[in-house]
Amino acid sequence: MKNENELLELFQVEELEKRYEMGWIKSTEVTGTATTSGGTTTATVGVKVTL
Known about the structure:
Elements: H1 2-19, E1 27-37, E2 40-50
Antiparallel strand pairs: 1-2
């Protein structure tokens, strides 16, 4: 019985891991630009997510 419980717990953990892998996100894209003016660097970063 102990082996059955261990297997069941392992299965449940694997299913939870699969559920939270974010399979509903089809793709992501990260873009960024940086400029330097007068010794100051300014950066802009964007993230695009396709669901």
